[in-house]
Amino acid sequence: MAVAGIALGTGVMAVGLNDFLIPARLNDGGLTAVAVVLHLVARVPVGATLFVLNVPLFALALWKVGRAFAWRSLLGTALLSAWLSVVPERAFVHDLLLSTVYGGLVSGLGSGIVFRAGGSTGGTDLVARLLRVWLRWTTGRGLLAVDVAVIALTGVVLGARLAMYSAFALFVGTRVVDFLQEGTEGEKAALVVSRHAEAIGAHVLDVLGRGATSLAGRGMYGGERRDVLLVALTRSEVPALKAIVAAQDPQAFMLVLPAGEVLGEGFAAIGPRRPSPADADRTRR
Fold first, then answer.
1. Which of 147-151, 220-224, 246-250 has the lowest mean pLDDT?
2. pTM, entire model
3. Which long-range CB contacts under 8 A does 170-173 form with residues at least 24 apart?
4. Which of 9, 10, 225, 285 sits CB 3.0–4.6 Å from 80 for a disulfide?
């Protein structure tokens, strides 16, 4: 079922690219954008170029990130590359703004389907994970850095006007993915009550690269003590967490809550430390 979802999602992404964005000389960020720029400049095929660009990233991800994420990314990228080679490149609309909006919507819809199926299309995701390992950057910071660099490349090669429209397509696609994943809510906090909390926590750390805090809990009905895991995560990681919990303990109780703001390790920095009363006393002295 997961493979079918990834296949469907990558097919929809290919339609967004080949039928809306590429005919208008646009892209929607990530390594796909690099492949699109090379296609527009040198007429090399987008699908094959995308796959070749991802090969060294897969090797690094297998070494540094882990097999599960790397193989899921390989599957998604292979399917997307295949779809890009099959779907004909044609312009459904001939207006630059409409091409931007429709391309972002369709491509984002496809990405959202892939994420909901527990897959990935490599590229930006792999780079962000590697930046997290090497530079200790958050996933969001890594994704932003890669997309900014790619949009800048678009501006240098194709001009500032097309770069601006490509950035808008990226924004539209990202909003669609967010909506498909978890509606309009922000970051997530998950509470998992399980007899196998330790195993679930280990998989959260290994697969998602997220920390989990174990809290002591007790059921009020039977008085049985259970561990409660607290996990802060991004929208796109919620399906993976559900899969982990289902695999380790199908009888677990899981609560996913919207978190208006998540600060700290793996997310945005809390900010500079506020001076304590002791600091103020030392300053006065």
1. 220-224
2. 0.65
3. 170/28, 170/29, 170/104, 171/104, 172/100, 172/101, 172/104, 172/105, 172/108, 173/16, 173/28, 173/29, 173/104, 173/105, 173/107, 173/108, 173/111
4. 10
